[in-house]
Predict the 3D structure of the following.
Amino acid sequence: MGYFSELMIERYNDYVTDALAEHWGIDYYELAKYEYDLIENQSKDGLITGFTVNFHRDVPKEFLTRIPGVDDRKVKVDASVIIDAEPYEYEFEAITETSKLLDNFEKEIVNLRRLNNLDLGNKDLEVILRRQVYIAAITTMETFLSETFVKVVTNSELFMEKFVRSHPAFKDRKFTLDQIYDKYNSIGDIAKKTMLETIYHDLVKVRMMYSTTLDITFPFIGDVMRCVKVRHDLVHRNGKSNEGDVHTIDKATVENTIKIVEKLVADLAETMGLFIMPF
């Protein structure tokens, strides 16, 4: 992962910890001492509706008793606790100010291949390494799909209009005539949030967004979807499938996944003409 990506993650983690601490009425530095996982809860349209905070096993029970609503080390929080206009603007500006998105993707892929080819001399550590590289390959693809869509759409009034007209998040909104101007003035902000809230490894929804907004034929997603399913099992099921089978993630498996991700991005870039675009 590149320096910019690591910096963004670190700042986002700080923001989340600060938001949760304020919400629960505890000290930021006290919460920051403990590790937790933040799991997104999403609607059928792929939008974030809330979060589940899952505290690690080493977090003291004495501390957990101070967290309202905690049950078995887990607690749900509303999306509004974490999602706020300022971080959206920060993330949006970071994306729009980033250039050479395709080059950035290719550099990350080169780094992932280097990691995959490392010989650690320890089988247990190599299993962990391969899993992390596999997950990172999918994350790198997500980042490219997200940043490319946001940048292309927000640089075009036509594409922005098509996005608003076609996305379910806008079709379901109701308002009275006296709210027209307020809603009109907020369309841009709502569109930004909707784009940034989208789960970009949900390729069926991503394909729909790209196709209906940009009028393109999105590349074949079958192979990548299988990789995304494995990634889900690695992250959320300790590497096991629904049937309880353990996924074998070796060097060859990771390389094959990288190639699949590369092909989807290359095909999309060719379809969109990204090779000649300034970003």
